[in-house]
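Sequence, structure tokens reproduced for reference:
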Amino acid sequence: MSPPPQRPRRRRTTLGLALMALVAAGAGLQAWRWFPSPLNPGLRSPSRPSAHARLPATTPARPAGSGSPGAIDPNLPLYNGATRRLAAQAIDDTARSQLNQALIALARRFLGRPSSPLPRGPHISERLLLDLEQVDQLRFVEQLLALVNSRQVATRTEAVDRFSDHVRQLRYRDGQVADCRRHPNFSLWAQAAERQGYLVHLTPFLPGASRRHLPLTVQSSQAEAAAARSSVAQRHCPPTPGQSQTLEQVYVPLPGLQQVLPSLRKGDIYALVSRRPGLDVSQVGLVDSQVRLDSRPPQIHTIHAGGSEVMRSLDLAREAGASDGVIGLAFYRPVPNPDGQPDR
């Protein structure tokens, strides 16, 4: 009697070998994807995103280092809406521009964007809030300054992290997020930014500069003063040991403004100095451009966050002279400080 045919076993053996070959090929493909080679130089991992990776719009809160249940570390950035994506795109688009050119290119993107005071008060926990969808006068300038100092990086993730670090250093004394460490007005903010190497105060070197002293309790703008009055946020912050209880403000009085206008350049920061009680300045913005008119002083075009939106003004001198309570202007020049450390 002849033995049964062996064809079914051969079929099963061939099928098994084929499956083993597919599994081996899949493992090889995964290894090729995750290990660099001349044909595959870049990884697509969260630590090294591709140049066009889409970033999440917000950063989830994580527990604070203290370990207390449910606590949130206030130093962790809180990105409003699409701010994370907008920051990465802004840094990408101006990566090769000079600092003052990058400032103005980004400022023009904000034109027409809503303007509102940064929320604060006893019922709002202090957080490192980053918001490129709506700004107030000081945060408009502050976040632009942080963006243009975050460009010398290898990846978008690193750029956005650097952006949040710069905002934290600019907004809070010693870079520590707390309500009593937030600079309460523009003048103190500018002094701290100058000490950290982000700005040069031009005003003391301009002809006709004058000085005055104000109590530390003044606000930066009418909007912030109104916000403080409408809440119980009289901050009750203890004075910093060794710190003077007054701030010195240097400004160019309105009658001498025309002779200093030619010294300004694109990207300079200006502030309208106010004599109103409780205010140090009534407006903060950027010099957008100079327009030369025959032999007369140039017209200075500016961009600033107004009452309801970011807007452009076509004559800084005329606007300052027509603004109620303005007695002069202060000027600052941004300088590169990519590591966020003091240069002097």
Summary: The domain at 77-195 is CATH 1.10.3670.10 (Putative xylanase fold).
